[in-house]
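[User] Once you have settled down, look closely at the record that follows, and write a paragraph about the fold.
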Amino acid sequence: MKTRIILSIFLVPALAFFVFFNNPAPFVGLVLLLGMVSVNEVYGMLDKINMYSYRSSGILLTLLILVFSIKMDTFSAPAAMLMLIFSFFMIMLFITVIFSKDINNFPKLLNTLFPVIYIAVLGSFTIHLRLMENGYYLIFLLLLYTFVYDGGAYFVGSFLGKHKFIPEISPGKSIEGCIGGVIISIITIVIIKYTVLPAGILGEHTLLHLVILAVILSISGQAGDLAASVIKRFCGVKNSSNLLPEMGGVLDKIDSTLFNAPVLFFYIKYIVRLF
């Protein structure tokens, strides 16, 4: 616990710097770094159950997708990413067939591509959010929703949790904790709206959008956490890595954010415009 507190004292201010620095370059650089580390963690977990991959190529592809997403228009980005992944797949297939002459290496291609799609494609939406108007506030909201729900669900679940929520995947979570996390998230965002956020950041109905997002992102963030739990249980590990003492790996910290980022992006891009 002591180590966790000390790490938090250093990590929270550092994260605030990356989020609120006027130039988006430091934040984008952080996303690139965390993306490569996270995908490497997934490869490491898969290695433990002998599901090997082309790790170096996968890490490089993750970097390329995230770098390309900086300049990509968001409407063309999905198609461009799919083309890039497909090209990589064909190149690796060619190498496998021609040079290794071992068809049993084919699963390595699939093991390589899954972590890339999971980490790089979903993670690229954090870059898209940061590059939007008032991007640092949008990233602030993304992290606030994620952390407040996680903390609220843990707190309420610890004291009131009686009914388990999918115990086969995540035995520590309870239905009471999930509901409590949503309520605490709504209360927190209402307070933040009147104390921190600039007026009209989400249009004329900012408060309504913020409350709706509190519910939606609680659900998608929980789904992201469960997705990572499925991978870890499948690989027989407790944490994605031991990079952060007492806190696990990078993926353990960003699993909910990976699912929340595209949800927040598309909500702002399409739903907010309807009001």
Observations:
- The two ends are 46 Å apart (CA to CA).
